[in-house]
Design brief:
Elements: H1 2-30, E1 38-46, E2 49-58, E3 66-71, E4 74-79, E5 81-83, E6 87-91, E7 97-103, E8 109-115, E9 124-131, E10 152-159, E11 167-174, E12 177-184, E13 187-188, E14 192-197, E15 200-205, E16 212-218, E17 224-229, E18 235-242, E19 267-269, E20 275-277, E21 287-293, H2 298-314, E22 319-327, H3 332-346, E23 351-357, H4 360-366, E24 378-382, E25 388-393, H5 402-420, H6 430-435
């Protein structure tokens, strides 16, 4: 009897062990890979060029994972989602594009930056990424001593078939490390990060919209020559001269009202489909800020980041704002999605309207009082009488330093002055008139 019990006990133990082993094997089979936390280095393949970018991943599951793009001092966060058993999907927030990547058996990522715009989904850039590498262009220990220091302001001339105003590069070099921004009449590149090696330099930037790269040579006369690459869009050759006095055309004078016009008028649908006009009672007697934007436009996003909290703080002073979105598809349902995401992401409490397709000629046609439309975004400020008092073309972000500070100071000064003006009697409420 004792022998039989021992045999039974032994069989149960073996069976239990087998079940545990099988369970372990089953668990191993269903375990889904996920990218490692930490620093990563990626490379886009653009034609024959490589465009490097860096990011950090925090979180071990799709519920907690955040991918942070790194560009100098700038950080942009994006949620990571699982796509199937071995892939991830990172939507570029309000930009209708995504990083889609497979997690390879060695832990690297391979995939593509993909446009999600209906009708444009063939636009993509392949990329690979490797965990644990924090450098951007040159591996540690392989730097070449720089022959020049290109810190300063550079006047950049770009060569295209069409006439293009000069742009300005603000660069800061510390040893081999290089950071900077390029400003144009339509906006800036956001912060770029790169390196100087011998007499050559490189800068790249990827913040969600299509990646950007600059490659150039520092000549013996201290001029620079090179090429700018705009991801899936275009490449432009340039040369530059250091010029601390260089300035862009005055952004307050590029866009203006045609002769005979003092006011602006329009009617566009809001995100519920209701038509909204500047002549509506809601705006009468108010100072009104008009923004022409697009969710595809990084400078428009930066301007929204500036305006949304400003408006919440100042609306009760007698201010209204309207963002007119011109999107990559001329479809209200599509615009409800893209502009709705913008509204949600940045907590926008002012009105958002849909103007149509993102085309400067279309904007000029739909806002015929303007001499021409040059840039997304363009800011139009209207006084309490309904007269256009100021138009600012483009946007200069915080990375431009003094240029942003000057913009912010003038914006507040103009708005303070217009808000202080009296409300015209014909727009004043009965209660306001009685209190006078």
């Amino acid at each position: 009897m004792m022998i039989m019990k021992t045999r039974i006990t032994s069989k149960i133990a073996c069976l239990t062990t087998s079940v545990l082993l099988l369970g372990g094997i089953a668990s191993a089979r269903v375990a889904k890979p996920f990218p490692k936390e930490g620093i990563w280095r990626g490379e886009f393949s653009v034609s024959e060029s490589k465009v490097p970018f860096n990011f950090q991943l925090k979180g071990k599951t799709p519920k907690t994972a955040i991918l942070t793009l790194i560009n100098g001092s700038r950080r942009d966060d994006f949620h990571v989602e699982r796509l199937g058993d071995d892939s991830i999907y990172v939507k570029m927030n309000t930009y209708d594009a995504a990083l889609v990547a497979k997690i390879e058996t060695d832990g690297t990522l391979s995939g593509e930056y993909r446009s999600l715009v209906p009708g444009f989904r063939g636009n993509s850039l392949p990329f690979v990424a490797e965990h644990g590498k924090s450098y951007r262009f040159v591996e540690p220990g392989k730097d070449v001593a720089p022959k020049h220091n290109i810190t300063g302001k550079w006047e950049i001339k770009t060569y295209t078939k069409e006439a293009v105003p000069a742009s300005i590069a603000l660069l800061k070099q510390n040893g081999n490390k290089l950071t900077g921004v390029i400003m144009t009449v339509v906006g800036d590149t956001r912060e770029l990060e790169g390196t100087v090696q011998g007499d050559e330099f490189e800068l790249s930037g990827f913040t969600g919209p299509s990646p950007f790269i600059v490659k150039g040579k520092i000549n013996d006369d201290n001029s620079i020559t090179g090429e700018q690459g705009f991801g899936i869009y275009k490449n432009l050759k340039f040369d530059g001269q250091r010029n601390e006095k260089a300035e862009l055309p005055d952004p307050y004078k590029l866009t203006f009202l045609k002769e005979g016009y003092s006011k602006l008028d329009f009617t566009f649908p809001d995100l519920s489909g209701k038509n909204v006009s500047l002549s509506d009672d809601k705006y009468k007697g108010k100072v009104v800020i008009i923004e022409t934007i697009g969710t595809w436009c990084p400078n428009c996003t930066d301007q929204t980041v500036f305006l949304s909290p400003w408006f919440k703080k100042n609306q009760k002073r007698g201010v209204e704002a309207i963002a007119i979105g011109f999107e990559q598809k001329d479809d209200l349902e599509y615009a409800k999605y893209t502009l709705g995401k913008l509204k949600e992401k940045y907590g926008i409490t002012y009105d958002i309207l849909f103007g149509g397709i993102a085309d400067k000629k279309v904007v000029t046609e739909k806002l015929p009082a303007l001499n021409k439309f040059i840039a997304f975004p363009t800011t139009i400020i209207i006084d309490r009488k309904g007269n256009v008092r100021e138009i600012y073309t483009g946007y200069t972000g915080t990375v431009t330093g003094k240029y942003f500070n000057d913009y912010e100071a003038k914006f507040n000064k103009v708005l303070d002055e217009l808000i202080a003006e009296p409300v015209p009697e014909k727009f004043a409420s009965t209660e306001t008139l009685k209190s006078k």
